[in-house]
Design goal:
Elements (H helix, E strand, L loop, with lengths): L14 E5 L4 H6 L10 H7 L20 E5 L13 H18 L3 E5 L1 H8 L7 E2 L9 E5 L10 H17 L2
Parallel strand pairs: 1-2, 1-3, 3-5
Antiparallel strand pairs: 4-5
InterPro entries: MUG/TDG, Uracil-DNA_glycosylase-like, Uracil-DNA_glycosylase-like_sf
Organism: Laceyella tengchongensis
GO molecular function, one term: pyrimidine-specific mismatch base pair DNA N-glycosylase activity
């Protein structure tokens, strides 16, 4: 039975990646972005965010690079549209507290819908946002890495490459 997976968190991360919720495969394995159809690990590498192609089983290793992982909702589901309004409400408050406590330099929302649920905004552009929910923490909106996303891989990678440039500029 799939269960919630552990966050990988530390204070003062360069990037905190925030997903919708774990996939069923992630719930089974206990690792972030474990579905074989999810392109997250490939996108990170192709965008220059990681020096090599990591596997989901190595998700905890990315703490050494200054990258952490969490989700707005803990419960694994097959699809994000199976998340309830109440789960989003509770998850939003919990996520805001994590971000306020840990103070990452950038929070990268892996999916525009995740950001909209978190921020309460009606729309958002890709990339760095003009204002932040938690003052002093930059917010970056990136496409979901799910295999269900219809964007071309090179378009997604280009947006994540903006995140890589942002991190390099602020170091």
């Amino acid at each position: 039975m799939p269960t919630a997976i552990p966050d990988h968190l530390a204070p003062d991360l360069d990037i905190l990646f925030v997903g919708f919720n774990p996939s069923l495969k992630s719930g089974e394995t206990g690792h972030h972005y474990a579905n074989p159809h999810n392109r997250f690990w490939k996108i990170l590498h192709l965008s220059g965010l990681t020096p090599r192609l990591y596997r989901a089983e190595e998700d905890r290793e990315l703490l050494k690079l200054g990258y952490g992982f969490t989700n707005i909702v803990e419960r694994p589901t097959q699809r994000a549209d199976q998340i309830t309004k109440e789960e989003y409400r509770v998850g939003r408050l919990r996520l805001m507290q994590k971000i306020a406590d840990l103070r990452p330099r950038v929070v990268c929302f892996v999916g525009k819908g995740v950001y909209l649920q978190y921020s309460g905004k009606k729309s958002a552009a890709w990339g760095l946002q003009e204002s932040s929910v938690i003052p002093g923490v930059q917010e970056f909106v990136a496409p979901s890495s799910s295999g269900l996303v219809r964007m071309k891989l090179d378009e997604i990678v280009a947006i994540y490459a903006e995140l890589a440039r942002l991190i390099k500029l602020s170091q």
